């Protein structure tokens, strides 16, 4: 079904929107012969690997572990199952912020994955996933390892969300121009990628530096502060997180519930920690049974259960300045062309391991519903197993015409060199046209402002005033239809800057004359910026913040 | 009733507070950065095998690659080869990416990062995790009650403050 026209993904020739629909109809008629392939979704923490004929992939930890109990052995990937005592595991992870930097770790793990008893390549074509904007030197190394070391015949590299997109449109029998937003929340980061006309809309892609690793480490930190010192037990606490954490629908209400005494508290859970003697994996103690065995080591979890995943929605809870996942999805949708926004909000797909928190989907829906214009349909879809959804899309890719058009053979690699084949991979489902038109400002959009009755206005006692913080550079713009009723009026901004350490001014809005709006905003901006700049200078120093202050503060 | 000059009334708590060491913004930011680094780290503890002298008994990873045995032996490379050839830290990679993206006129890794949030930050008590509306005077950490404040002052207040 998902047959793209071949030339659209080559950098040299660009697709004409009028021509491709006709071509699609022609190509659909051709039946595609069954191809077998090895699909490897190379997650930063878990590798999902299997042949295309398999129903489910195998999950293999993408790391080498060292145990305290077995001093002479390294545990590569799945071998950890042979380890008796998983306390105090030491992790060697190949990825740094999601990008492979430690080849001395990645290579042995791949060797393990492709070994005889796991998943040998055996001349199958290989579909490999890589993070968005994978760095060039990493791609060079991947190509070298796969073509020269493993001697694969065919290699195809793509972003995991591409596979998820293909899987989604095939499952639903949508046509390949279907617009959707994919939210991929993994171990190292969360990506928000809108797909328009079958390719990624580059300008609207967002990355949030919050992933499962950060959540686990945060949980580890607060448990260590409040109960036991578990700073060395990343492996166990990750399981605690998976078993007990959930996303609440209303944090304020949930906190009130959690504050109740134990007898009436529906949130508190006693978690039995593994002792690696009789209990290999911890579990939640049945709340109905009051008596428990003395040998159990109990970890009591109360508000930690929902405060930890809350970081995804409000990174400011741990002091990061970045916007939360729902806000970023809205931002991303609003950066897309005006005519696509409404259809984008109709299919928002949540994938990646973090989506497995119970209640995640419901919370996403609630937040998006309140942030997006009320005339739009909001539809959030989460597959049954969010972590393996991309892997399953490998099958859809295999059946598509693109696969055969874009796959790189060993011969190509030898003849063309890695530069050309990287172009081919990186341009797959990538729309460069819109980047060229970027310079022209969209005049229609500028007229409207987003009068947001943001849900957060009611958070923690500030409910009486509709508050929104404004930044001239990133004003959220809203579709004309949604805000037509407001276009007659305009807002006059009143400023009250608080001294309490908030760097950004808080702008209250009330109805006023249209002409004045801009001036006032500008004046306001100047007022705020002066103290800010003095302070920020230090933050911009590269020594202090090698990745820029945004990623930390 | 008159109050003599020497015996002015006042609270001992306020006097105590004056003695407090207040951490300035620069240090608070540095501290925040350390917390973020901790949250991004893979391990908290040191390598438990670091003091081990690796012997020959340790399995070599190349051992389990059977499929390659009948192929060209020249191609066989050790892990060190890749590590040496592609050794770059994350910062170098990001810098390279920025240069490349400028050439190709595409967004780079840094460009797609989320902007700052438009929503006000919420504050949670660092000790118990419930809403905390008060600031610690010396370090700015949030707490919710006198009890949590005391715990905080006794434990983490000046931790990480160089």
Automatic annotation (TrEMBL), chain A:
Gene Ontology cellular component annotations, sorted alphabetically: cytoskeleton; nucleus
InterPro entries in the record: Actin, ATPase_NBD
Region (Disordered): 1-26, 476-515
Major localization listed first in the record, in broad terms: cytoplasm
Keyword Chloroplast attached: no
Keywords: Cytoplasm, Cytoskeleton, Nucleus
Keyword Nucleus: yes
Location within or outside the cell: Cytoplasm, Cytoskeleton; Nucleus
Family named by the database record: Belongs to the actin family. ARP6 subfamily.
Name of the protein: Actin-related protein 6
Organism from which the protein derives: Hypothenemus hampei (Coffee berry borer)
Automatic annotation (TrEMBL), chain B:
MF-aspect GO terms: zinc ion binding
GO cellular component, one term: nucleus
Domain HIT-type residue range list: 125-157
InterPro entries: Vps71/ZNHIT1, Znf_HIT
Top-rank taxon: Eukaryota
Stretches that traverse the bilayer: none
Pfam family for this entry, one: zf-HIT
Keywords: Metal-binding, Zinc, Zinc-finger
Protein name: HIT-type domain-containing protein
Originating species: Hypothenemus hampei
């Amino acid at each position: 079904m998902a047959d793209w026209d071949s030339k659209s993904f080559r950098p040299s020739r660009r697709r004409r929107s009028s021509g491709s629909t006709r071509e699609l109809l022609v190509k659909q008629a051709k039946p595609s012969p069954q191809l077998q392939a090895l699909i490897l979704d190379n997650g930063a923490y878990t590798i999902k690997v299997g042949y295309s004929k398999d129903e489910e992939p195998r999950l293999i930890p993408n790391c080498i572990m060292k145990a305290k109990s077995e001093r002479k052995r390294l545990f590569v990937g799945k071998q950890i199952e042979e380890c008796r005592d998983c306390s105090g595991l030491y992790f060697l992870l190949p990825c740094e912020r999601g990008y492979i930097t430690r080849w001395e770790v990645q290579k042995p793990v791949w060797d393990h994955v492709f070994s005889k008893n796991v998943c040998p390549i055996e001349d199958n074509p290989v579909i490999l996933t890589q993070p968005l904007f994978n760095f060039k030197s990493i791609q060079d190394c991947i190509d070298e390892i796969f073509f020269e070391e493993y001697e694969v015949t065919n290699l195809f590299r793509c972003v995991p969300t591409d596979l998820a997109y293909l899987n989604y449109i095939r499952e639903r029998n949508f046509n390949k121009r279907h617009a959707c937003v994919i939210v991929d929340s993994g171990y190292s980061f969360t990506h928000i990628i809108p797909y328009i006309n079958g390719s990624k809309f580059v300008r609207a892609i967002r990355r949030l530096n919050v992933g499962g690793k950060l959540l686990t480490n945060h949980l580890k930190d607060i448990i260590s502060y409040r109960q036991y010192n578990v700073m060395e037990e990343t492996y166990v606490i990750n399981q605690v997180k998976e078993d007990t954490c959930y996303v609440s629908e209303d944090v304020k209400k949930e906190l009130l519930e959690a504050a109740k005494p134990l007898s009436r508290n529906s949130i508190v859970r006693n978690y039995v920690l593994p002792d690696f003697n009789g209990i290999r994996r911890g579990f939640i103690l049945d709340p109905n049974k009051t008596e428990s065995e003395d040998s159990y080591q109990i970890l009591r979890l109360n508000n930690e259960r929902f405060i930890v995943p809350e970081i995804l929605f409000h990174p400011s809870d741990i002091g990061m300045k970045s916007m939360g996942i729902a806000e970023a999805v809205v931002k991303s949708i609003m950066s897309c062309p005006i005519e696509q926004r409404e259809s984008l909000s109709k299919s928002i797909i949540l994938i990646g391991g973090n989506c497995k928190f119970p209640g995640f989907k419901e919370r996403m829906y609630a937040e998006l519903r309140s942030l997006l214009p009320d005339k739009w349909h909001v539809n959030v879809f989460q597959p049954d197993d969010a972590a393996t959804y991309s892997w399953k899309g490998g099958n859809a890719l295999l059946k598509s015409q693109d696969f055969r058009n874009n796959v790189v053979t060993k011969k190509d690699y030898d003849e063309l060199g890695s530069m050309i084949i990287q172009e081919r991979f990186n341009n797959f489902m990538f729309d460069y046209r819109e980047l060229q038109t970027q310079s022209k400002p969209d005049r229609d959009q500028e007229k409207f402002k987003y009068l947001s009755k943001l849900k957060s206005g009611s958070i923690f006692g500030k409910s009486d005033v509709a508050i929104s913080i404004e930044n001239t550079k990133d004003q959220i713009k809203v579709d004309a239809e949604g805000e037509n009723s407001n276009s007659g009026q305009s807002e006059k901004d009143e400023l009250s800057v608080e001294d309490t350490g908030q760097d950004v001014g808080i702008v209250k809005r009330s109805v006023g004359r249209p002409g004045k709006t801009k001036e006032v905003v500008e004046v306001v901006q100047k007022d705020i910026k002066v103290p800010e700049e003095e302070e920020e200078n230090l933050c911009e120093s590269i020594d202090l913040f090698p990745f820029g202050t945004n990623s930390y503060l | 009733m008159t109050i003599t000059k020497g015996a002015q009334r006042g609270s001992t708590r306020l006097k105590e507070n004056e003695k407090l060491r207040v951490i300035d913004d620069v240090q608070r930011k540095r501290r925040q950065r350390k917390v973020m680094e901790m949250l991004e780290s893979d391990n908290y503890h040191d390598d438990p095998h670091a003091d081990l002298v690796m012997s020959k008994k340790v399995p070599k990873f190349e051992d389990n690659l059977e499929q390659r045995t009948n192929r060209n032996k020249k191609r066989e490379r050790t892990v060190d080869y890749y590590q040496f050839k592609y050794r770059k830290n994350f910062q170098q990679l990001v810098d390279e990416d920025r240069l490349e993206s400028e050439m190709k006129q595409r967004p780079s890794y840094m460009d797609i990062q989320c902007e700052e949030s438009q929503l006000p930050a919420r504050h949670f008590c660092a000790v118990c995790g419930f809403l905390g509306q008060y600031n610690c005077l010396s370090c700015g950490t949030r707490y919710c009650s006198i009890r949590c404040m005391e715990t905080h002052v006794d434990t983490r207040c000046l931790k990480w403050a160089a």
